[in-house]
Amino acid sequence: MTDPLKPLLDLEGVAAAAKSAQDAVFAVHRLPANLRGGAATAAEASVRAARASAGIEGANPELPAGGAVDDPVLAGALRVAETLESLLPTWRRAPMQALARLHVLAAADLVGDADALGRPHSGGGRLEMLAQLVTGATSVPGPVLTAVVHGELLALKPFGSADGVVARAAARLTMVATGLDPKSLSVPEVAFFRRVPKYLEAAEGFASGTPEGVRAWLLFCCEAFESGAREAKSISDAAS
User: Does the chain have fewer CB atoms within 10 Å around its N or its C terminus?
Assistant: First the structure.
């Protein structure tokens, strides 16, 4: 069977960028603090990822001093972060179920009709194709598949609410599932948050489907993976 994503590796610079991103993330896993387990780094990375993801959507990413989170977007992103690890087995075998659960968690405070939670209303065949990719229909490197999952969900907006938070959470799951970031230590979301206009522009380019637009998105994501690895290193260094 032909690998539908293999042609992406022929786009100029993509294979090299994916290798560089993978090497950067692997290097973080080899740091002494993370060789011993990395739980502290992963926990902090998870919170930073959630805050950045909410910030991309326009929410205030700062955690309130009192502990109670009132912003519905930030609250949803944090709920997603808390549940992500437990969703990994579902993501590997039934991605559509995992996406539905992610939406329930992310949009619980945003959608008035509870029956609308977890129910995609657009995407159809492309969502099914994405699920096939996640469950083994491609052998491209982890950075490429992660970027495709992320970009497709941003383009499809399958739920009509909290789609960005869901897309970035699904990308985190893909990073773990593909072995790109098996301990979920890196924080590419921070890089996206720091460059929101470029992030949105690159995502639109991917959604256009043109070779140049897709290439620019893949390269942008690979840059973010490297930046996310640097963020993880700073977390590890602080914990050491």
Answer: N
CATH of the domain at 196: 1.10.3290.10
Is the pTM for the entire model greater than 0.70?
A: yes
Nearest-10 Cα torsion for 111, 93, 34, 230:
-60
Rounded to whole angstroms, the Cα distance separating 197 from 166 reads: 19
**97, burial (CB in 10 Å: exposed 0-12, middle 13-18, buried 19+):** middle
Instruction: Identify whether 47 is part of a domain.
Output: yes
Domain enclosing residue 171, as ranges: 6-61+68-239
pLDDT (tens digit per residue) in 133-192: 999 999 999 999 999 999 999 999 999 999 999 999 999 999 999 999 999 999 999 999
165 domain residue, yes or no: yes
Is 53 in contact with 77 (CB distance < 8 Å)? yes
Of 188, 200, 230, 182, whose CA–CA distance to 48 is shortest? 188
Number of domains in the chain: 1
Question: What's phi and psi for 170, nearest 5 deg?
Answer: -65, -35
Please give the pLDDT value at position 113: 80
Q: Quick check: 82 pLDDT over 90?
A: yes
Distance CA 60, CA 5 (A): 36
Q: Computed over its alpha carbons, how large is the radius of gyration of the chain? A: 17
Task: For residues 72 and 52, give the distance between their C-alpha atoms in angstroms, rounded to a whole number.
Answer: 14
Residue 191: inside a domain: yes
Q: Is residue 1 part of a domain?
A: no
